[in-house]
Design a protein that fits this description.
By secondary structure, the protein is α/β, with parallel strands linked by helices. It folds into two domains: about 220 residues, Rossmann fold, CATH 3.40.50.300; about 220 residues, P-loop containing nucleotide triphosphate hydrolases (Rossmann fold, 3-Layer(aba) Sandwich), CATH 3.40.50. The protein contains 17 helices and 22 strands. The strands form four sheets. Strands 5-4-6-7-3-8-9-10-11 form a nine-stranded mixed beta sheet.
Length: about 475
């Protein structure tokens, strides 16, 4: 089994299936400003010990004092580790400028003997290209350096300001055991930082692009939510999750509500009561001691408080948790991990997402959105978490389709809310379109929104618009 060293970020370790390869050469490539130096220092500090220090070697990219000055502002920077020799910073820039690659090899030999590092960072490796007389000279240098680092049983990180396209053309690409690419992409009107594992010798990893942020804690990575369909069987709970609307539970089959762990899609136009139906669902669970989460992009805390209190509930209920966030600068994977962390922390068994239109707007493309939805629904189903999704549709009357994204096919239950003309009156109407593994009657029922919330009425005879 190939040994790993943790990166200092749990979710990046998840992508790498445990961390970077130990006693190997790890190449970090990316355009200037993408965070290569921060990631390598984060790794160096996290793995530094008295017995096996981390050695950071700067070249011609930035002066060492500048690297140190900015590193001191980061939370993982430990001045005591620098003082007691667990972290050693050295500058190869002067040797490179005045002498040459042979003297660089001699200097690295000396550092390896004196420091006995467990981790060696070279920032930036591309400087060696510039000082080589020709490609043959550089490849000889590369071979000698690789041989020495391998013989010393060190874990090496080489930073290089290449794009992903450039990196595959360089000799370092073939030598490296692992390659991580950092990039800044423009998606719609946003700039996103994305990380991709291009190579991990002899190991599996999570493929694709993963969003990351740079903060004073270093690089925080959010693995792309893209779960494969799990073929193994799992136990389905026989319990029910009441909707909080007694008449609706009756329409669902046996008067007990949805199957626990099922996904319910509530679709309808603006102002029809989708958010209110979600609140009924959460506070019904709270009555039985279940924790629930409302993840909304629609209302802020003050607006939510007014809505909740007007129907006799309280935002102080310890069983109902709120996560309200603007779609501005929102990333779908970062947001979903915040949601999953809240669900785990509270032990929530009911989750309402209000609404899918907002999630879709930040997903980037329809394929990514469907992939994300499938993954989230599968995770919730296997964990026995009942998920309710609201979706705003443009039509006020005679809804002809629910979604272009195939969301209704993934949902176990589909509840349609719509406006119906009844003579001169405009009324609200509810229809249970779908209930998986339950009998139901897809009739159009009138309902009213009162101070007590949803009140279901009689069946409505709907006449097609002419």
């Amino acid at each position: 089994m190939i040994e790993r060293l943790p990166t200092g970020n749990e979710k990046l370790d998840e992508i790498l299936k445990g961390g970077l390869l130990k006693n190997a050469i790890n190449l970090i490539v990316g355009i200037p400003g993408s965070g290569k130096t921060i990631l390598s220092q984060q790794f160096a500090f996290h793995n530094a010990t008295q017995e096996h220090p981390s050695l950071f070697l700067s070249t011609l990219s930035e002066p060492l004092d500048k690297i140190l000055r900015y590193a001191e502002a980061l939370k993982f920077f430990d001045a005591e580790a620098v003082r007691d020799g667990r972290i050693v910073y050295e500058d190869l820039g002067q040797i490179l400028g005045e002498q040459g690659l042979d003297d660089v090899i001699s200097a690295i030999d000396r550092f390896l003997k004196e420091v006995k590092p467990g981790v060696v960072v070279i920032d930036s490796f591309r400087a060696f290209h510039a000082l080589a007389k020709d490609e043959t000279t550089f490849r000889q240098f590369l071979f000698e350096l690789t041989r020495r680092l391998t013989a010393s049983a060190t874990t090496s990180l080489w930073n290089a300001p290449y794009s992903r396209e450039e990196a595959v053309q360089e000799a370092e690409f073939a030598v490296a055991d692992a390659i991580i690419a950092l990039d800044i992409k423009r998606v719609i009107e946003r700039e996103l930082r994305v990380l991709q594992v291009m190579k991990l010798r002899g190991s599996s990893f999570l493929s694709g692009e993963h969003v990351y942020r740079i903060t004073d804690s270093g690089l925080t990575v959010f693995p792309r939510l893209a779960d494969m369909q799990i073929q193994s069987r799992y136990e389905l709970s026989p319990a029910r999750a009441g909707s909080g609307i007694a008449a609706l539970d009756e329409l669902l089959g046996h008067g007990d509500g949805y199957w626990q762990g099922a996904t319910t899609l509530v679709a309808g136009p603006s102002g029809i009561g989708k958010t209110l139906m979600g609140l009924h669902f959460l506070y019904r669970g709270a009555q039985g001691g279940e924790h629930g989460v409302l993840a909304t992009f629609q209302e802020n805390a003050s607006q939510l408080s007014r809505i909740v209190s007007s129907f006799g509930w309280s935002m102080e209920d310890e069983h109902v948790h709120y996560m309200n966030q603007s779609v501005v600068d929102l990333n779908i994977d970062e947001w979903v991990y915040e949601l999953l962390d809240l669900v785990n922390a509270t032990g929530a068994t009911r989750v309402v997402i209000d609404s899918l239109a907002d999630v879709r707007s930040v997903a980037g493309d329809s394929v990514r959105f469907r992939e994300w939805m499938f993954s989230l629904i599968q995770r919730c189903a296997r964990a026995g978490i009942s998920l309710m999704l609201t979706l705003e549709v443009p039509e006020l009357f005679e809804l002809r389709r629910i979604s272009d994204e195939g969301v209704s096919h993934l949902a176990d239950n589909v509840v349609l809310l719509q406006y119906v003309r009844q003579g001169a009156e405009l009324i609200r109407a509810l229809t249970v379109l779908k209930t998986r593994a339950m009998a139901h009657r897809p009739l159009v029922h009138r309902y009213e929104i009162t101070s007590e919330g949803f009140t279901l009425g009689d069946v409505v005879a709907v006449t097609p618009e002419g």
